[in-house]
Write a structure and sequence with these properties.
Chain A has 8 helices and 13 strands. With about 290 residues, chain A is of the alpha/beta class. Chain A has 2 domains: about 190 residues, Rossmann fold (3-Layer(aba) Sandwich), CATH 3.40.50; about 80 residues, UDP-galactose 4-epimerase, domain 1 (Alpha-Beta Complex). In chain A, helix 4 links the parallel strand 5 and strand 6. Chain A is globular. The interface between A and B is large, with 42 and 42 residues.
């Protein structure tokens, strides 16, 4: 499968590119012009020319079977500047990728969505943030290509993610830092539920979905891709301690819940044929065990 | 009600601006820089500065109570160039209008959607075109503001429209031209159903919805605003002939249905408190009666 990856210089996209390269499959990554991030040997670099006709030409040159669209601006604020950024990156670029993929005769496009489009805890659309709204809006654009063209698309709504080499400022990394430093982590009351999802499972889901579409299987417009275990943050710390043999000093209730906090994440129909393979205890031990042992 | 109108130099937006001005209400129109179209006396002109912070400043200066968002690129093709245009105009500009309206403390935003987002004839999302998909995507962005901010939004999904001074190349105008010239109009088999909606009824719906939101009434995210009578194109010609006292030479079946033709338009829940007031026969007589009489 010849694959184009967007967001391939980001954390999850980078893991996906490494897996594809490891399988010996031809890979190209679409980057913003001037992006200094290196790519693995043998991976083609396509600079986004900023227009759909230009990007279509670039994609046609690579002749991909599938596009895996992970590029996204992840500004979770609600400022005027964030609106411009989110719309340019998540909708302007995303729309170009869709139009160019269709024009280049690509068979399948798999895109990363977010569970935070369902912040009311049911299947309905309820965006937690403008970021989530731009993801939903991308899905609406993809719906045109699914229905009216030969480009098959599917959106995978990802739950909270973690994995090796993930240095994003997420709760799990704050836990790990507290375990190492011994400094007390001031946290919310900690009753909100999350479903941590290992990046290897995400990578598997993208490859599985793209392969299915390229083989001509029909998939729905959107599926959940979520971790195997739903735990409160308090339970997550307990699992982390057991998995890593550490003690994490946390002061629960030291800060309030964030405004708009999702207390119970909604999980819809899971991508058929895929299931998470990495249990939470096992995953945390593998990712955080070594780092906090010594 | 102090009102900002986008698309105010277009056909429907122009009719809306004229009505607001006629009521003596303060109106500003947001235009693309360099738009040569004149505005009625007393209407403020706001040039889109191209960024959300810039547009927010401009809106704050006018202090609107409501924004009526009718601006849209209406390219119904599916070219790469159309994608760039539709996304820039309908999502880039639309997102700026939402962010700026919220920032400027606007209470209500009413936006024009399209029935062609439901091309399968039920409530589900099934975009007839990329144009319809960009309208749906705008609605997803509006959903963030509805849920998470003080800006109330509603999308009015309009059916086919007609009205005085409408010279767009629509079927009704082709009928009128054939009635005047006597030249035979080569048409499809003509069994597709439409619900022609008079622009005066659209204008009333926008003003009604904006007033309701400004007064603090709760409305749903989206409503149908459709004409009173569902007719096939064949029936439409018959009504036209009766209404205008003319004979329209049509060769039905001279051309095939368009690809993706909507045979039965879907009408969802109608904007509560509004109903179309202009019957089809009455409306056609008023709009086309004079033009084809002499």
């Amino acid at each position: 499968m010849r694959t184009v990856v967007t967001g391939g210089t980001g954390y999850i996209g980078g893991r996906l590119v490494a897996e594809l390269v490891g399988r010996g499959w031809p890979v190209a990554v679409v980057v913003i012009p001037g992006d200094p991030a290196p790519l693995p040997d043998g991976v083609a670099r396509i600079e986004d020319p900023g227009t759909a006709p230009g990007l279509a030409d670039s994609l046609a040159g690579f002749q991909p079977d599938a596009v895996m669209h992970l590029a996204a601006a992840q500004d979770l604020t609600d400022t005027l500047e964030a609106s411009d950024l989110l719309v340019t990156a998540n909708l302007g670029f995303g729309a170009r990728v869709l139009a160019a993929a269709r024009s280049a005769g690509v068979r399948a496009l798999v895109a990363a969505g977010t569970y935070s489009a369902h912040a009311d805890g049911d299947a309905g659309y309820a965006p937690q943030t403008l970021y989530a709204a731009t993801k939903q809006a991308f899905g609406a654009l993809a719906g045109h290509y699914r229905r009216n063209t030969t480009l098959a698309t599917v959106v995978l709504e990802l739950s909270d993610t973690y994995g090796p080499g993930d240095h994003r400022p997420k709760f799990l990394n704050l836990i790990a830092a507290a375990a190492t430093s011994g400094e007390v982590l001031g946290a919310s009351p900690g009753e909100q539920v999350i479903r941590p999802l290992h990046t290897d499972d995400i990578v598997a889901a993208f490859i599985y979905a793209a392969s299915a579409l390229v083989e001509g299987r029909e998939l729905g417009a959107v599926y959940s891709v979520a971790g195997p275990d739903a735990v409160t943050l308090r339970e997550l710390v307990a699992v982390f301690e057991r998995a890593t043999g550490t003690s994490v000093p946390v002061e629960w209730g030291a800060r309030p819940y964030r405004s708009g906090e999702i207390m119970v994440p909604w999980t819809g129909e899971t991508l058929p044929g895929w299931a998470p393979s990495i249990g939470l205890t096992e995953g945390l031990a593998a990712v955080y065990g070594a780092g906090v042992e010594g």
